[in-house]
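Interim report, section 4.2 (structural modelling).
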Amino acid sequence: MEARILINHRQTELIIRRFVLQLTEQHGDLENCAIIGLQPRGVELSRILIQKLNELKPGHKVRYGELDNTFFRDDIRRGEIHMPRPSKIDFSTENLNIILVDDVLFTGRSIRAGIDALINFGRPARVELMVLVDRRYNRELPIAADYSGVVVDSRSTGEYVKVEWNPNQNQTWLLPNKG
Amino acid sequence: MPATLIHLLGIKGLSEESIQQIFETADNFKQLLNSPVKKTPSLRDFTVANLFFENSTRTRVSFELAEKRLGADIVNFSSSTSSVKKGETLIDTVNNILSMKVDMLVMRHPAPGACMFLARHVNAQIVNAGDGTHEHPTQALLDAYSIREKLGSVYGKKVVIVGDILHSRVALSNIFCLQKLGADVMVCGPKTLIPRHIAELGVKVEHNLQNALQWCDVANMLRIQLERQDIKYFPSLREYSMQFGLTQNILNKLDKEIVIMHPGPINRGVEISSEVADGNNSIILQQVENGVSVRMAVLYLLAQHQLEQSKS
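Predicted structure of the assembly:
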């Protein structure tokens, strides 16, 4: 297969603007919400999202955190060595509506680990999932996105999605696997 | 690519990269331990046996908590209530435990080199929890981690280790660890308790406590290990305490603040006064707290290594 751009810079901007509108439509002033980016790549999206949210809805003071799921993965001791990254959540997630943010939803395993890691910080009222790319038909667990930028019907093998975060050139690629 | 650890037998064989990797992982575990739920399921399919052939409070409890908080199954073994008393050899004891599908051994043993010996003869990952007068690697790691936490970095810091250097595994592991991280190390104590030729390890030697404290940023006070002393190394504990015991009066004479550490157990009034041990400059309890996160990091990183691969 040929490499192709799934989302260009302009489309990424529109998607993030749409996410902000969807969040305010769903949660009003977001007073009882927290946006939490999943390490490592979800935080790139969540940081831009929170910036855009503060820009478009300056009166909304939404809680923001970053979460690492490494210690909750189900593939520890199964090959690759997983090194953790810092979690930064300086509030209790008890009774909050959490919007968990990641770049790509593929098998659902990272999100499952992320939810387990999240619950260590308290019992949320509700957890929603926001992803830039939803790779449909590749799920290995019953997990679905509440907010998705684009939905891609890609094969589970032979292809992968790469999101490049660059202030002036955000791009998301569908690429053939190397080798 | 993270460095791969197979065993933790001592600090001597550990690279600076591995030490930094342990510290970074420990940072994340410390954060986890401060969250409402202090557990992860990382090692839920893993069994650790804690083999203690020597008495221990802090190290054993700390390892046990670390293992439980990682979700591992654990077995505790104490030599005083085991078949070792009936004459079983170390290898036989360990192989019997391993045959019950144990993945990792945490061992404390009075014989220096016992962990090294075991690593060569049994098919399991070994963590040295103190082997005689040789090494106590996790204590050195948590000491260095506590200095890093308190002062921001270990690099360039001046650390004096005071007391029974001759019998102390903590001293040797600390010297290796601190030097690998770029600290300047001094040992201080009576001549009889400083090993000959220790200067060849690149450490400074001082026999005057006041001079040593004036030089350092951190003072790590060690206990006199009477249980390992078969002869008299100094006339009396009282005399030792007068010459090498750290009191508030001595600290007041310094023209700077220094950090006070102690690996425990403390003999209050001998190597350190209660006032100093419980004072503002002391990080003794932080050391104990950090011990759990550092040991979680060590176990987590070791457990990710596939033993079969290392043997092939």
